[in-house]
Amino acid sequence: MPKLINRIASTLSPSDHPYLNGAWTPNFDEYDADDMEIIGEIPTDIDGVYVRNTENPVHDSIGHYHPFDGDAMLHAIRIKEGRAEYKNRFIRTKGFEDEAEAGKALWIGFMGNPKDSTRKGWGAHGHVKDSSSTDVLVHDGEILSTFWQCGEGYRLDPESLDTLGVQDWVPKDGVSAHPKADARTGDLLFFNYSTKAPYMHYGVVDADSKLKHYIPVELPGPRLPHDMAFSENYSVLNDFPLFWSKEFLDQGLYFPMYDPTMKSRFGIVPRYGKPEDVQWFEADPTYVLHFTNCYEEGDEVVLDGYFQDDPFPAPLETMPDKYKFFASNLDMHSLKTHLHRWRFNLKTGETREERLCDAEFVEFGTINPSYLTEKNRYVYSAESEKDWFLFRGLVKHDLETKTVQKYAFGDQRFGSEAPFIPRKNAKSEDDGYLISFITDMKLNRSECVILDARDISKGPVCQIILPHRICSGTHAVWADAHEFTK
Predict the structure, then answer these.
(1) Chain-centroid distance, C-alpha 144
(2) Taking a C-beta distance cutoff of 8 angstroms, is the pair 379, 429 a contact?
(3) Residue 94: which H helix or E strand, with range?
(4) Quick one: 247 exposed, middle or buried, by C-beta within 10 A (0-12, 13-18, 19+)?
(5) Is the peptide bond preceding residue 198 cis, with omega within 30 degrees of 0?
(6) Exposure of 88 by Cβ count < 10 A (0-12 exposed, 13-18 middle, 19+ buried)?
(7) DSSP code for 99
(8) Is 97 helix (H, G, I), strand (E, B) or coil?
(9) Please, are residues 108 and 120 in contact by the beta-carbon 8 Å criterion?
(10) Reduced to 3 DSSP states, what percent helix, strand and coil does the chain have, rounded to the nearest 5?
(11) What is the pLDDT along the chain (486 residues), one digit of tens a residue?
């Protein structure tokens, strides 16, 4: 039977907000469960943990709520020898604890005026709370959770999900979401950004969580980078023409704007390079939330990611007026996201780019982690529900044949980012599994599904029924046991 570990006191009021209802309904109960219903059989050649981060607000927001404002809750399933154990926990950030003591929200959200916050700090930009609710990875045997607007980086135990505190290597400007762990070297590569010159920094942390490299990266002004990439010898940073408006910043407001007349810029720097070593490349204007892989080929650095045809789309007509603006900026159909490739020639300074697949409205991609920094054939993307920040299925892209294979979660079933689990003694790049949490609104339940990555169209090889219906979330990670057991 599942064991209720804790019930968090919430002051959240009933709301018609589209991201506080349905599959986005927040959870306040923390569970442990090790005797769950299993449909099919859990593969016995899996040994590790799947962890997903979630925006899960506990208190009514000050002003308009944006789904990126929620408190962080981790959902994790530990799989070993054909058995599964599930647990979920809030990340006990400093902001979470302060608001728990106050019994209400203390910080304005992404869409609000910073002057309305009753508390400052716990975030690199001051006006927002560092909820650590965006990304999650495993490094140096621990979970690292991060926040998209640059926070402190929180450490958690991969098996208990206990919050262990903040990372002591994080600089004063914080760490953005999407630092990258290089399994070959143990390095953790990261960046941050702020509203003050030089506007960006880049750094490297070693396998023992010691900061060993940190440099300024000069930009023309404040920017809003969200992801980075790395190859064997280089790191790739970016400067896209979607960033905070200076006019609004001068008024103390953090409001993004898009300028389609400006080029995108990519900064390529040797892993331990100096500021003067950054080589900038221009490309077509866009905004990229996430990259999938990066590798070197001759004189070129090759980068794959999700190009947005319309990074600043018109408001959605299907949403109530008070939610129209931010809803369109979460909808992949509005953004028209698709897989894209950039080639940067380090000798000539030339950029070449191309569309990789015609399948639209995909994002949040994963690959076989064994192929990071090497040329990969397959990418596994999440397919979007129209008008909603919800994932309705998975798409397997074959970059050689330019074909796709799909698995639809089903009517009113919404999934999570699906990491790849390499099979032991794998015979091919796609010889492994995909794993995801799915929330089923018809059956009012959630489950963990495992699919054979060689043929995702066949559907799950097993479904593990969770003890409660969980809230939709963003990023997830799979870590093999050797990455967190010492």
Answers:
(1) 12
(2) no
(3) helix 94-102
(4) exposed
(5) yes
(6) buried
(7) H
(8) helix
(9) no
(10) 10, 40, 50
(11) 799 999 999 999 998 999 999 999 999 999 999 999 999 999 999 999 999 999 999 999 988 899 899 999 999 999 999 999 999 999 999 999 999 999 999 988 887 777 777 776 555 455 688 999 999 999 999 999 999 999 999 999 999 999 999 999 999 999 999 999 999 999 999 999 998 999 999 999 999 999 999 999 999 999 999 999 999 999 999 999 999 888 888 877 788 899 999 999 999 999 999 999 999 999 999 999 999 999 999 999 999 999 999 999 988 888 888 887 777 889 999 999 999 999 999 999 999 999 998 877 999 999 999 999 999 999 999 999 998 899 999 999 999 999 999 999 999 999 999 999 999 889 999 999 999 999 999 999 999 999 999 999 999 999 999 999 999 988 999 999 999 976
Quick one: tokens of 450? Answer: 């495992």
AA identity, residue 382? A
The identity of residue 380, as a single letter, is: Y
CB atoms < 10 A from the CB of 126, how many? Answer: 16
